[in-house]
């Protein structure tokens, strides 16, 4: 499914999926943005609801991969793509919503190409502003202090999901590798890295992989993707020291 951003929040979300350095900008936009949540109840009506002081609402929850979430949407378009029947929905500032639902895990844009899981802990960091301290922009480049190596325990669910996508849909991917990266200057824990080599056009590859990454749990997050296109500075490491988890069959 193609993704056409409906607003600035969605533009910044799409960029943040593949560019770690864009994530702080996404969080800032989110704090100032209106999001949409689906209300529960037995008599749904396709209309917007405004909260008044002291009012309580019942919100719809969804289960994804055995975990319960409150779904929210970055636009009415994303919500309508997810739920086709008439519903009563709540339009509310994201910070206000997070304050009202503290302790709950939230899923942004379920069913969409671009979405994000927010754990209760991450939501707390958005509310108190500490997310911006932890999210110093950092891009893996040549000649840095970043340490890179194989994971002690590969993220099996993620790698299986990516392998299936490469076999069935992303057939121009030649090979893909999994590693962990850690920068002592900016990181508190290792990050999961997926490096992908492909032929032809690859604009949709990172988008599709990002969608898969949003649907699984890994021990070390965030999950980051790089293209092995000759300019990443990591081609030599992966080709000479790392075994691919996916290698396209050739004749």
From TrEMBL:
<dbReference type="Pfam" id="PF07179">
    <property type="entry name" value="SseB"/>
</dbReference>
<protein>
    <submittedName>
        <fullName>Enhanced serine sensitivity protein SseB C-terminal domain-containing protein</fullName>
    </submittedName>
</protein>
<dbReference type="Pfam" id="PF14581">
    <property type="entry name" value="SseB_C"/>
</dbReference>
<feature type="domain" description="SseB protein C-terminal">
    <location>
        <begin position="140"/>
        <end position="247"/>
    </location>
</feature>
<feature type="domain" description="SseB protein N-terminal">
    <location>
        <begin position="9"/>
        <end position="124"/>
    </location>
</feature>
<dbReference type="InterPro" id="IPR027945">
    <property type="entry name" value="SseB_C"/>
</dbReference>
<dbReference type="InterPro" id="IPR009839">
    <property type="entry name" value="SseB_N"/>
</dbReference>
């Amino acid at each position: 499914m193609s993704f056409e951003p409906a607003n600035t929040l969605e533009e910044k979300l799409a960029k943040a999926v593949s560019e770690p350095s864009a994530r702080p900008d996404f969080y800032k936009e989110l704090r100032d943005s209106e999001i949409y949540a689906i209300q529960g109840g037995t008599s749904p009506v396709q209309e917007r609801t405004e909260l008044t002081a002291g009012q309580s609402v019942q919100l719809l929850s969804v289960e994804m991969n055995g975990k319960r979430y409150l779904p929210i949407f970055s636009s009415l378009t994303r919500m309508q793509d997810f739920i086709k029947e008439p519903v009563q929905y709540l339009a509310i500032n994201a910070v206000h919503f997070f304050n009202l639902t503290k302790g709950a895990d939230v899923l942004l844009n379920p069913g969409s190409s671009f979405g994000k899981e927010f754990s209760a802990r991450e939501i707390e960091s958005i509310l108190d502003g500490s997310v911006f301290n932890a999210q110093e922009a950092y891009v893996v480049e040549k000649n840095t202090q970043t340490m890179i190596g194989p994971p002690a325990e590969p993220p099996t669910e993620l790698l299986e999901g990516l392998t299936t996508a490469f076999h069935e849909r992303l057939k121009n991917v030649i090979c893909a590798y999994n590693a962990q990266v850690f920068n002592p200057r900016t990181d508190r824990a290792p990050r999961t890295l997926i490096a992908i080599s492909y032929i032809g056009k690859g604009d949709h590859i990172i988008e599709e992989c990002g969608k898969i990454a949003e649907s699984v749990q890994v021990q070390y997050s965030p999950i980051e993707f790089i293209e092995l296109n000759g300019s990443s500075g990591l081609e030599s490491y992966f080709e000479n020291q790392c075994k691919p988890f996916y290698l396209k069959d050739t004749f």
